[in-house]
């Protein structure tokens, strides 16, 4: 299968590396020093499941050099999706699958504004990984998964074939019965821990240990549940209980990528997380006081990062 990894960071680099190592025809989009390092030395992946290299690796910063991929995996941030979709319009065919793995609940809607709905799959991933250095990806925690499906939850031939390709590459591929529920469950975790983590600047486990901060985390998650349910998503009390249990099981130093972006002064997905909940709350007439405080407290730093 011809696969384009659009964004070779922690997510795209890891999953693309696994697929390339398994013999799929993978092209990576990368830039600057990352591009140079991959061209010269290949893509190095350090992983708790065993280190490996893709060398040589097909890599470019010019998407016009990529022709008619069968699958595009988007490894960018949520706020970059629309621009990516505009660039993809000229190279995809009617049969190309575009799979967003970004955190957030409205990635498919953003894609649908630019490219045909038939091309779009819905998805998410579970992994702790990062670009450690130019040409080097570090997968440091959690058994990686890609959870995905058709936007109408049909178990189509193409998603079942894709699941087989993922599994054969050593990636746990899951075609879920309710992709929207799965996306909101992942979103609830990331949005709950990222903003408060950006404010406290400590690991998830340390926040959970503190009774006051744990209460804030729980209130954040309950506001997210209220928005999900108002939008018709089956995000129930059992799911919330699982969310809090999962947060409580995180390590003392574990951090989400958005928290790391905030702490490093980089543009983050704050607006797509707590900001999105605030926006939807205003539209739906639901109070989101905790999410709004977190969002407003971090917004000046976010604006500063984007000016830079």
TrEMBL record:
Catalyzes the NADPH-dependent reduction of ketopantoate into pantoic acid. It comes from the Bacteria. Belongs to the ketopantoate reductase family. It is an enzyme of class 1 (oxidoreductase). It comes from Zunongwangia pacifica. Signal peptide: none annotated. GO terms for molecular function: 2-dehydropantoate 2-reductase activity. Pathway: Cofactor biosynthesis; (R)-pantothenate biosynthesis; (R)-pantoate from 3-methyl-2-oxobutanoate: step 2/2. SUPFAM superfamilies: 6-phosphogluconate dehydrogenase C-terminal domain-like (SSF48179), NAD(P)-binding Rossmann-fold domains (SSF51735). It catalyses: (R)-pantoate + NADP(+) = 2-dehydropantoate + NADPH + H(+). PANTHER family: 2-DEHYDROPANTOATE 2-REDUCTASE (PTHR21708:SF26), PROBABLE 2-DEHYDROPANTOATE 2-REDUCTASE (PTHR21708). This is 2-dehydropantoate 2-reductase. GO terms for biological process: pantothenate biosynthetic process. Residues 178-299 form the Ketopantoate reductase C-terminal domain. Its EC number is 1.1.1.169. InterPro entries: 6-PGluconate_DH-like_C_sf, 6PGD_dom2, ApbA, KPA_reductase, KPR-Related, KPR_N, NAD(P)-bd_dom_sf. One of its GO terms (cellular component) is cytoplasm. Keywords: NADP, Oxidoreductase, Pantothenate biosynthesis. Residues 3-152 form the Ketopantoate reductase N-terminal domain. It holds the Pfam family ApbA_C.
